[in-house]
Amino acid sequence: MLPTNIILIRHGETAWNAERRLQGHIDIALNDEGLRQAAATADALASERIDLIVSSDLQRAAATADAVARTRGMLAQRDPLLRERCFGGFEGLLYSEIEQRFPVEFAAWQAREIDAPMPSGARVAETFRQFYQRAVAAIVHWGDRHPGRTLALVAHGGVLECAYRAALGLSLETPRDFPVLNASINRFTVHAGKLSLVSWGEVGHLQPKVLDELS
């Protein structure tokens, strides 16, 4: 079976990203910078082969995927299994507020206790292990369904982290010492149910275009 090429993209910036407010499953739109980033990502990928575009159903990922799809005359599909981790009662709070309201749970989260529960809020939180299993399975599922093709999957920072860890065989308990950037382009292959990393963290396309000083 031929490998599947996966272009894994993080959604563009939101206002909550900018102020370090935890989103999780709360459905936050792209801000103006995020819309610019989505358009720049679409332009960067315009000449590349993409056979299928799939995104999380949360609007920050969906809008980023739709920007890529529009330049190609395609429609993006939605998959809720590509959503960000559900953080339960942490969602909607600044990191500083989480630490104040839930000091024990916050400490466990920061210590990367992968099975530690979080308080429930509007939704029941996932442990990191549960989230990792869900996110990686979703990516591999799409890859295994489309051997030999190139897929653009648009998701969230946590999903990208899970893919990176799965591809490199990193323990879930180790600190995240690699960047996970808004509107970054990250490349993987899926072959026989296994993720492999090709390249990580392409963001050159996000630099503002420099105008000719004589124009």
Automatic annotation (TrEMBL):
Species this protein is from: Massilia aquatica
Record-linked PANTHER family: BROAD-SPECIFICITY PHOSPHATASE YOR283W-RELATED (PTHR48100), HISTIDINE PHOSPHATASE FAMILY PROTEIN-RELATED (PTHR48100:SF1)
Keywords: Glycolysis, Isomerase
Protein's name in the database: Histidine phosphatase family protein
Superkingdom, natural source: Bacteria
Upper taxonomic lineage: Bacteria, Pseudomonadati, Pseudomonadota, Betaproteobacteria, Burkholderiales
Cross-referenced Pfam families: His_Phos_1
SMART domains noted in UniProt: PGAM
